[in-house]
Amino acid sequence: MEGTAIRLQGLRKSFGQTAAVAGVDLEIRDGEFFSMLGPSGSGKTTVLRLIAGFETPSGGSVELAGRDVTRLAPFERDVHTVFQDYALFPHMTVEQNVAYGLKVRRVPKAERLVRARRALAEVRLEGYGRRRPSELSGGQRQRVALARALVGRPRVLLLDEPLGALDLKLREQMQIELKAIQREVGITFVFVTHDQEEALTMSDRIAVFHQGRIEQVGAPAEIYERPETEFVASFVGTSNLLRAESAQRILGSPGTYSVRPEKIRVLKESALADEPDVATATGTVAEVVYLGDATRFLVDLDAGGRLTALQQNLETSAEDVAAYRGTRVRLTWHRRHAVRVPD
Ligand code: ATP
User: Where do the ABC transporter domain residues begin and end (predicted)?
Assistant: First the structure.
């Protein structure tokens, strides 16, 4: 990861009265798997389209590898976009689909074939070259779209919710493969998703979007463990906030704090927990959900508010779990796991 692949400065885009992108500054490094994460309408697709050149900004600039491309057409930029609907040509074979971009660029036939086969091997689709898209599964079509993007060796690959159409199992499998492929080919990937788990699984870094702006940029663990805003705390992972008065009673400080559910231990109310760096709160179990590998407890705190705690089912069975409802418990967590977020 030597240089800067993409630099956005003061980027803005309005559609009529809607400020889809309301001032974005961002640097994406060479060779990085970078995700833009946010809810529907937060502006991430528009940023992707501004990088690709499908939209012209209302303000600010786009640089690719140190070159200002703000006013350049899409084909003059060294990027390739993979869309969710794949956009494969149905009448062409897989190999022809993959080689198409090279044909347009007048690469000789023999070379096209070699490169198309290499790209198909990179997405683990050797031997599928002569099929048509209709003879492939959804996941395989997705890989063809990826091979078609890789074959031209762009500097940057833009992916707009590319796994959105796949079922959950396939999606999870493709997440791991996509990450492995990216690592092998070393191309910068910019990945748009509204799925926080997907972003956490695959990315080197994530930008969290909210209302046309970026709220936080960081590695998955930073975003998850150290959310800098209430929005990030609630959008990434389970929202679990201690507010003013209950925070004052439990932590001795009246701010708003985020505590991740898996950091909270559920103990008997009588359990002793008087270590100085451990916070403790008593309450009543309002709801308990058996999840197979873990159990989720929703606890109404005596100090006010409700927290969710997630416990691994080491020795717990489904029957034990049901018996917890309505019982008194003590929640404990390490103080450093209560992260202050601005009110
Ligand atoms: P999604 O995950 O639903 O695609 P997003 O975060 O990618 O959402 P954008 O598609 O960038 O969000 O849209 C941001 C805002 O800009 C939305 O309010 C959307 O309605 C608006 N918008 C996007 N494109 C256009 C357009 N071509 N014309 C008018 N408004 C648009």
Answer: 6-236
Ligand 1 atom showing the smallest separation from residue 42 Cα: 6
Pocket of ligand 1 (CB under 6 A): 15, 18, 20, 38, 40-46, 194
pLDDT over 70 percentage in the chain = 99
Burial class (CB in 10 A: 0-12, 13-18, 19+), 112: buried
Residue located nearest, by CA, to atom 11 of ligand 1: 43
Cα 40 to ligand 1 centre (Å): 8
Residues 6+ apart with CB under 8 A from 218: 205, 206, 226
Of all protein residues, whose CA lies closest to atom 15 belonging to ligand 1? Answer: 20
Q: Where are the domains of the chain?
A: 4-235, 241-341
pTM of the model: 0.88
CB 258 within 8 A of CB 341: yes
State pLDDT tens for residues 127-173: 999 999 999 988 888 889 989 999 988 999 999 988 887 788 888 88
- Compute the CA torsion angle 22, 25, 27, 32 (nearest 10 deg): -30
Pocket perturbation via mutation, ligand 1, pick of 18, 194, 198 by most ligand atoms within 8 A of CB:
18
Residues in the chain, how many?
A: 343
Which ligand 1 atom is at minimum distance from the Cα of 47? 11
Q: Which CATH architecture has domain 4-235?
A: 3-Layer(aba) Sandwich (3.40)
Nearest alpha carbon to residue 144 among 202, 189, 198, 83: 83
Q: At the top level of CATH, which class does the domain 241-341 belong to? A: mainly beta
Each residue's pLDDT tens digit, 29-48:
999 999 999 999 999 999 99
